[in-house]
Amino acid sequence: MSDVKPFVLDFNLLTGRCDSGKVQPTARYMKDLVKVFADSAVAEAMAAEKNPLVYEFYELNFIPEESGDLRFGTTIIHPGKVADEYFLTKGHFHTILEAAEVYYCLAGEGAMLMETPEGETTLCPLKPGDSLYVPGRNAHRSVNTGDKPLVMFFAFRSDAGHDYGTIEQKGYRKLVLDVNGVPTLVDNPKWK
Ligand code: NI
Predict the structure, then answer these.
(1) Residues 6+ apart with CB under 8 A from 1
(2) Reported pTM
């Protein structure tokens, strides 16, 4: 049974930020993500030079995992590219592989790249107002294909857990690249 008491948090509808400061975002810079990008040499050079902020997320770590409560928050992916690859999040499976997640796009322009262990890839373009259901068994990675921050709200069962390791080791089968200005799925030459 959950011990969580009712509470209210604020997330700005345009920026995704908690303006009251009740919760703080976690930031991921280029130096944290060098191996995540297909062209890690370019990513390393960018990390050494300006080390741009790639994405931020608010997550409610105070919600217990064991209880199967809900965790929610926002993620903010900044615009940019490493060579032809758009800025993105690391991406993860849930430790409970069958656990689903809901996203709601608040601002910006982008896509969710999903991939099952069996190799089924789905790229869902997202614009403000779009609500996305990520079914279980799908690793999910947010990609900013626009020129403004991509802001999304998400919610998932708190016991789902995050498996980042599988993606870190194997990579995604597909990349989302800017091909003549169009976000395009291409095979990842480094996929193992
Ligand atoms: Ni997730």
Answers:
(1) 67
(2) 0.96
- Using the mean position of ligand 1's atoms as its centre, give its distance from the Cα of residue 101 in Å: 6
Q: How far is the CA of 94 from the centre of ligand 1 (A)?
A: 6
> How many Å lie between the centroid of ligand 1 and the Cα of residue 49?
31
| Torsion-angle region of 161 (φ positive above 0: left; ψ -120 to 50: alpha; else: beta) | left
Dump pLDDT digits (tens) for 143-190.
Answer: 999 999 999 999 999 999 999 999 989 999 999 999 999 999 999 998
Residues 72, 166: Cα–Cα separation, whole Å: 23
CA of 68 to the centre of ligand 1 (A): 14
CA dihedral 186, 187, 188, 190 (to 10 degrees): -150
Compute the C-alpha angle 92/25/3, nearest 5°: 80
Residue ranges with CB less than 5 Å from ion ligand 1? 101
* Ligand 1 geometric centre to CA of 140 (Å): 7
- 149 C-alpha to ligand 1 centroid (Å): 19
> Hey, how many other C-beta atoms are within 10 angstroms of the C-beta on 105?
22
Looking at residue 143, its amino acid is V
The string of pLDDT tens digits covering residues 68-117 is: 899 999 999 999 999 999 999 999 999 999 999 999 999 999 999 999 99
DSSP letter at 91?
Answer: -
Report CA(19)–ligand 1 centroid distance (Å).
24
